[in-house]
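Input record (one chain):
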Amino acid sequence: MNSCFCKMEDLQQGVLKMFLSSYQHKIKTLEELQEIIGSFPREKKVVMCHGVFDVVHPGHMRHLMYAKGKADILVASLTADYHINKGHYRPHIPQHIRATNLAAFEMVDYVIIDKNKTPLENIKILKPDFFAKGYEYSAKSKPKKTQEEENLLASYGAEMLFTPGDVVYSSSKFINLEEPMLRLEKLAAVMENEAITIDNMIDSLSADKPIVMHVIGDTIVDGITYTNVIGGQIKTPTLSVRLESEENFVGGAGIVAKHLKAAGADVIFTTVLGEDPLAEFVLNDLQEAGVTVQVIIDKNRPTTFKNAIVANNYRLVKIDTLDNSSISDSILDSFIEKISTTKADAVIFSDFRHGIFNKRTIDGLVAAIPENCFKVADSQVASRWGNITEFQGFDLITPNEREARFALSDQDSGIRPLAASLYDASKCKTLILKLGERGSLTCCNSDHESFSSYVFVDSFVDHLIDAVGSGDALLAYATMAMTKGYSPVIASIVGSMAAACECEVDGNIPIAKEDVIKKIRTISAQLQYDFDLKSILSVKDVVPA
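The corresponding structure, as predicted from the sequence alone:
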């Protein structure tokens, strides 16, 4: 029985792959399409449509059907991801999936992905007999871009077509009503394009050889004081609360070290602490977690302590005990000595701007990193003024969108142009830009117009409980994968899985690699189910041999 089931499953997968290949062959490069359709004038008429086609809707269907009725060959051209800037996070559907969607339509003969900002360059090369646009572009006062297209067509004897319509549909409007949930489809497409398997992801977490990580950064003790409201003052807006309990947690660069240890690395952590009871708490906590701590005591500063006062599950106020002044020259020399003599596979700078990293110290700290070390940096600007571009030439940086915009003084650019600018400004080898609930964008190529330069990975959070610390988990697991030699794309996927695990628990606690592997296997099962569910051809009636 089992053997028959396996044969039927294999047959189903094979039939579906044959079905997919029957229309994916329609997707062509510009050069291939130029050879297929021939030079203008030609015997078989060619009509070309161009657009984003982010969410294909009834308006697109009518547009394509009308265009096909006017010529022998319909070419659907779509804008590459890099040039789409209708919204910070557009497109929602990557170009390879958008191309496959269009190729699946019977009326579409060929599909190309246009790497240019406008279709003008491809019109010059392909010289279609007709160029079709929607009815909304046919007004007497045409948009400038439409007029340029019309003039170009007229220059060699072609014609602009405007498809009739009574209702104007818009992908943007549909997306604004409800964003599409396509995380599995996007992940499957990324895995196929990058030749990545589930086993690759799991292998990146294996303990085939010991990995040594050296974290350098600011330690923060995060405290929570729980209270209950028992009254208030009449004359002033002052609450009266009763103390219930208090909890302290190691945060900042300390939690990054704990994440790396939970991921299976041997971890060295170099930090500065005050000469106070909180320093003892930090040392005990990290040593219990198995982290080797190189502590530098500064008698002139307190251990950084951020205490949130909570009443009836509401945060009333946060009280910070800290000193953000730069570390002394002698302490800086101690850091440089410990970094320059490290035997670690990777050095991670975890910057929270509480004295270790600043304009006076960063150059010396960076220069101390041994040449053979994998270099990683993360700089926080949640309430400070860190700038990730101060860490030049690193192998991996992992800022969030706010930190990227702060570093570049850029509040307006779309995500891809923003990532491109930050990649160039920081001279990094890999950028993983954290986008919160929207996932992450990985950039590891200076050719910013290349189709393969950017990879979006959606969030894998199923049940959000607490997002605090998710970026730390991503940093740790992405670093582990890349230090072991796995690709930036695998690193970003595995890091995103770890971030999702962190979001699904309360508090910023270390995420064990077993939890990340479990999440990967869960997504793998969902991918398989989704693939089977969307199989268009059913083989239930096939009798096994």
